[in-house]
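Memo to structure team: turn this sequence into structure tokens by end of day. - J.P.
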Amino acid sequence: MTKPLSRRDFLKFAGGALVAATGASLLPGTFNKMLQPNGIVSAAYGDPPNLYLAGTDAWISVPGEIPIYHPDPLAPSPFTTYMFGFRDVTGLNKKRKEGQKGKAQYPSPLFYIDQYDETGNPNEFRLQLTNLGLALRPDLIDEHTVHFHGLRNIIPFFDGEPNTSLAVPIAGEFTYAWRVREPGTYMYHCHVEDVEHVHLGMTGMVFVRPLQNTGQLSDSSNVQIPAGKYAYNDLVQPTEPESTAYDREYSMLLTEIWSSAHWAFAHVQLPNWDEYKADFYLLNGRVYPDTIAPNGSIEFGNPVTDNQGDLIPTPGYEHLLYQPLSSLVRCNTGEKVLLRFANLGFTKQNMTLSGIKMKIVGKDATLLRGRGGEDLSFDTHGIYIGVGESYDAIFTAPAFDPTQATGDGYNKYLLYNRNYSHFNKVTSSGYSGQMTEVRVYPSGTIAAQTGPNT
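Reply from structure team:
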């Protein structure tokens, strides 16, 4: 797609979807329900989108020094590294939306979706995408897509793979609509020139909330499960050991930066991907100790912006303006904490929680249950996370020990990459890797979350 989607183009693609629908109508009811696309295609062009993303570029900050490549001499202070990415421009008028060119967020905005409920109030999730172009590289006219990594039963029209779907050119727009029936932890990314665009930062996480949260489901004894927070439709009471109930949740997106590639794109060069070797390993777009810095100007589903639509810097953390998502885990003793891990780097990683056991309850947006319903969850201190994989881990915050408390009144535990020392040779301080802290406070100290990672 080299031009904005015209009425003729839309009718052509929608017509193909309807032909598929006709064939699907001849299938048994179960397959027909999953595959028939005409209703979902129509849904994309009905109500306003739930989320509006804009693809563009940005400068971010990563500590350390690598001669020639990092910090990039073109980077404006206090930034160091050139990136691609998405920005949440929901609710901005046309002028302010276009003013976000060159101000992408890294990683791309975190968002979440309620599981599709076809029996109650059918709900599609609509994501609108526009392409603002690149502020530093106007010579590059790359298109962009949003690929919902791991989503099952999606029709090609909304898959985001550009050879079988649509890609958005500069100044173009496209609206995706999804009916997501499988809860869990997912990722999304641009699928155009995907090695380059994924590594340069067009990656993010998305959660799907289970229907069980609403209190509509029952256990095997036909006793209603109370409404609450659950990772999956586990169909057991929250007091049962195999329950996926939790009190707080935190996302942990693992990505990487190869400084040579980022420098090359900023300086109108082409990297040789055969020579790939990551220099920085990041959690939610930051490296330690920036991982424990506070959240920036974001509210989930409602970004906080200035009167021009730009993100607002946190005093003392101006270098993290476009890296607003903290990885700091804060909880009260006895609370259950859900950690949602996803890896969109190019290297397998091992994340370890020192001193606290995690219970792995889900993998790749799938509840760990056997074919007969047996519980396959397991306890561990560390998990290997392959490229493109996600894991859901729940831990119970241990009892607060006042003799081990810091001056701020919490017990500290480290969540870090097992290969941490190997990944920290590029800074004089030794800190440039995937590590954060879990801080456990006495009961009742921390107020309830207002969103993930808060």
